[in-house]
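Changelog entry: the DNA-directed RNA polymerase RpoA/D/Rpb3-type domain-containing protein record was regenerated in this release. Current contents:
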Amino acid sequence: MIVMSEIDLKLHCVKGTGQVHAKFSPVATASYRLLPEIRLLRPVRDEQAERLQGCFSKGVIELDEEPDGHKVARVANARADTCSRNVFRFDDLKDAVELSRVKDHYIFSVESTGAYAPDTLVAEAIKVLMAKCQMFLDELEHVQTHD
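Regenerated structure tokens:
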């Protein structure tokens, strides 16, 4: 455009939901997983401890030095585990570790497209869910009173 030129236009805005069309959803990717649980069933030391540490994501297993100079493995941050199960490739480490998941601990990951912060999106989604639950309860009550 050149200087002093102008555009004459009309804009129409529509507030929609992702249920109507994906273009209205402010969420890029949303996922969940269960919290990993890692238990060491026996002490793992020295070279085995270093291999064990290499089987997991960075920060999951840390090595502590004992007073006698030996390194011993400990679980530092099970949450950082990607559940690769690489430890089961080593016959001498298979019996040292138990991998499971905490059945009632969910880790949610929400990526925003930028219009709203992820924490705002989750709070708003919970409000929508609560409204739907209340509507369902109201409908149940209505059915029970008319029987």
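The mean pLDDT is 91.
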